[in-house]
Design goal:
Mean pLDDT: 96
Order of helices and strands: EEEEEEEEEEE
Helix content: under 10%
Number of strands: 11
Largest sheet: 7 strands, mixed
Structural class: mainly beta
């Protein structure tokens, strides 16, 4: 069982930056593939970024490429999402997710591919 706790959300003006953190419990964090998802009101949940268990492979949604960066620190059991040049359309609840059974270099982008979810953190970007 893995527990995920997100932090770092908040209110920011357009063009600003935020860094989300997701702290995971347990001693096998390095074996998990991780992802960041978001869901805005009235919209479907989407994967914005994902990282493989090894940390070698990453995925970004087209809407965030060049602005968001996912990284992981296995020594701290934490995955990060650095968000720069934020836009009002980035406003959403952001969730981190962990997948247990993985291929080391694979990334996963569908929500149903993940086993554990955090409670979410609100990101609001004002224009």
């Amino acid at each position: 069982q893995v527990q995920l706790v997100e932090s770092g959300g908040g209110l920011v003006q357009a063009g600003g930056s935020l860094r989300l953190s997701c702290a995971a419990s347990g001693r096998t964090f390095s074996r998990y593939a991780m992802g960041w998802f978001r869901q805005a009101p009235g919209k479907e949940r989407e994967c914005v970024a994902a990282v493989s268990a090894s940390g070698v492979s990453t995925y970004y949604a087209d809407s965030v490429k060049g602005r968001f960066t996912i990284s992981r620190d296995n020594a701290k059991n934490t995955v990060y999402l650095q968000m720069n040049s934020l836009k009002p359309e980035d406003t959403a609840v952001y969730y981190c997710a962990a997948r247990n059974k993985v291929v080391s270099y694979s990334v996963y982008v569908r929500g149903d591919e993940y086993d554990y979810w955090g409670q979410g953190t609100q990101v609001t970007v004002s224009s």
